[in-house]
Amino acid sequence: MIEEVAKNIYRIGVVLPGNPLKELNSYLIRSSERELLVDTGFRRDACREALEAGLQELGSDPSKRDVLVTHLHSDHSGMADLFAGPGRHIYISAQDYKYMDGELNGTTSERKKRRFLQEGFTEEEVDYIRSNNPARVQAIPKLTDNFVTLSDMDMLEVGDYRLQMLLVPGHTPGNVMFWEEKSGIMFTGDHVLFDITPNITEWADVEDSLGKYLDSLRRVRDYPVRLALPGHRKTGNYRERIDELLQHHERRLRNAFEIVSEEPGLNAYEITGRMRWKIRARSWEDFPSIQRWFAVGECLSHLDYLMKRGKVRRTFDGTAWHYFPAED
User: Fold this and answer.
1) Is the domain of 193 the same as that of 44?
2) Which of 211, 245, 279 is at the close of a domain?
3) Whole domain around residue 139: which residue ranges?
4) Same domain, yes or no, for 190 and 93?
């Protein structure tokens, strides 16, 4: 459950019950003057108990503890306010702070609901997913006064470590990594995962989230990373994994474009059901509802990318969008 991954940096495994991700890697960076906890887990009892147990075993001092959130997803941010010490800070990118605020006041989620209805979901399915999605029901309930927003290239210091924030939008609009140059350590969050592929979905008010993700991968590819510390599961070869992720999305873009070309006029829900997915389900109809939601979001990010580059167009029939090759 606890592993010292580098001097004064500890990984605490936070169980994510019932979630295919299985576990969050929460990292505690400590010095005699300050502690920094990177990511926290869903807001549920099992996650809280696991993180509390890990921190107690390490003798963590809440009066010295700040929290750093790599991105807004609730498996990373859901308990941030519970584990920041009294009067301490919760750090997050300015972009993701804005989106968290939109989620909490309902404006962002309502825009997403409208789009997913127009892309082929039924009202009943959207309402079911919204009431059961852990991203909503296990999220932080409000933004407290101790949130502090960060900008690209800002620095945080903990003992001998100087962490530079790198804004890498794509997985979320304000997704970040943290680079520690002296040690060659990169906290990759969910930007680079090694045995699973980060979900890249569409985002309200983001024209091309996949394009931003691919640009972000290229931006950070050549950092001389000696140890990558991801948000989930195991680490691996940093540069090789980025190349694999770039190739993965090239294949997925080809797959989406082939479906649009072979069956013009489908909506995004139908296109998603024809795409290739690595999931234990016999057919698209057997996908759990929440996994269908994530899959359609990922399909939309690829369709948005193709439209942005003039390869795909869409038309609206008053109820749903339908996709065609641009030359049709």
Assistant:
1) yes
2) 245
3) 2-110+134-245
4) yes
CATH value at residue 304: 1.10.10.10
- In this prediction, residues 171-188 reach a mean pLDDT of 98
pLDDT value, residue 328: 64
Same domain for 232 and 254, yes or no, is no
DSSP bridge partners of 177: 166
At 141-173, the pLDDT tens digits run: 999 999 999 999 999 999 999 999 999 999 999
CA 61 from centre of chain:
28
Q: Which helix (H) or strand (E) holds 304?
A: helix 289-308
pTM (two decimals): 0.94
User: How far from 219 is each of 49, 193, 216, 304, CA to CA, in Å?
Assistant: 37, 16, 5, 21
Q: Residue 268: which residues within 8 A CB-CB, separation 6 or more?
A: 119, 120, 296, 299, 300, 303, 321, 323
Token code pair at residue 202:
């569409």
274 and 262 in contact (C-beta within 8 Å)?
Answer: no
Q: In terms of C-beta density within 10 A (0-12 exposed, 13-18 middle, 19 or more buried), how is residue 101 classed?
A: middle
Determine the average pLDDT of the residues in 196-202. Answer: 95
What CA–CA distance (Å, rounded) separates 272 from 267? 9
pLDDT digits (tens, 9 = 90+) for 251-294: 999 999 999 999 999 999 999 999 987 766 667 777 778 888 99
Per residue in 301-322, pLDDT tens?
999 999 999 999 999 999 999 9
- Copy the structure tokens of residue 282: 């016999």
